[in-house]
Amino acid sequence: MDAPAFPTRWNVNAPELIAETFSSRIWKVFRADGSPAIVKALKPFDDVKDELRGEHFLAWRRGEGAVRLLGCDGHCMLLEYAGETLLSQVLAEQGDSAATAIAAEVMARLFSPSDHPAPPDLQPLRARFSSLFNKAKTDRDDGEKSLYVEAAATAERLLADPVDVLPLHGDLHHDNIMHGPRGWLAIDPKGVLGDPGFDAANMFYNPLDRDDLCRDPRRIAHMAEIFATTLGQTPAAILDHAIAYGCLSASWHHEDRNAIEESRELSIATAIRTVRLSL
């Protein structure tokens, strides 16, 4: 595939396509000093605003806990090279506890104070949860006492009384945390605004190929303890965020008519709920 014409001012060369997703093409390039960098070229798709909010989040974070935004041009971003080691590799080689500890360290850095004003276009968590609220309303109207209904009530409670309201990554998981020259960094944020507990939630549902791990009550309880300590919250609150997030993700899959992934998310949310009820 031919590389797009990158801005001359970036002075990058030798582009190599290293990944392609539904939303973007990812190119590894080299800068004038020989150092590697990444170009993320967005495709035209429905949720491009998500990606642009993520770009603004990275610009605001200025490299603290996340990759640096080195340049932007329309729907193209020039990004710091984050390395080649994914957190999921640490989990596979050193175990889940080691991976969870690293994720907690990255979270702590992501939520460290900034002297700069937050981007104005970050998506409020209430708007992020709209699909869950819509699905819960449908279920209620149909007389169903589903997990969606319960999770929507939990989300409403969390939104009404946030521990803090901060810029969030919005999609933190084992394949969005990488190790490179500057250590462990988060990549590919969505740019959300709300309670930091939301950013711990997706970790419970990952890695995607480890349902045995994601449903393990000991792992669920351990993650809740670690992230609660990191974020200054209770394990119960972290688990509430995890349940709400999982049902939100399931509602997205429901909209996409992806019954297999919807069922997976709900089964993990149910396992998390069981641990939550034991506290």
Automatic annotation (TrEMBL):
Checking InterPro entries in the record gives: Kinase-like_dom_sf (IPR011009), NH2Glyco/OHUrea_AB-resist_kin (IPR006748)
Q: Which Gene3D superfamilies match?
A: 3.90.1200.10
Top-level division of the source organism's lineage: Bacteria
- An annotated Gene Ontology molecular function: phosphotransferase activity, alcohol group as acceptor
- Gene Ontology biological-process annotations: secondary metabolic process
What name does UniProt use for this protein?
A: 3'-kinase
From which organism does this entry originate? Mesorhizobium mediterraneum
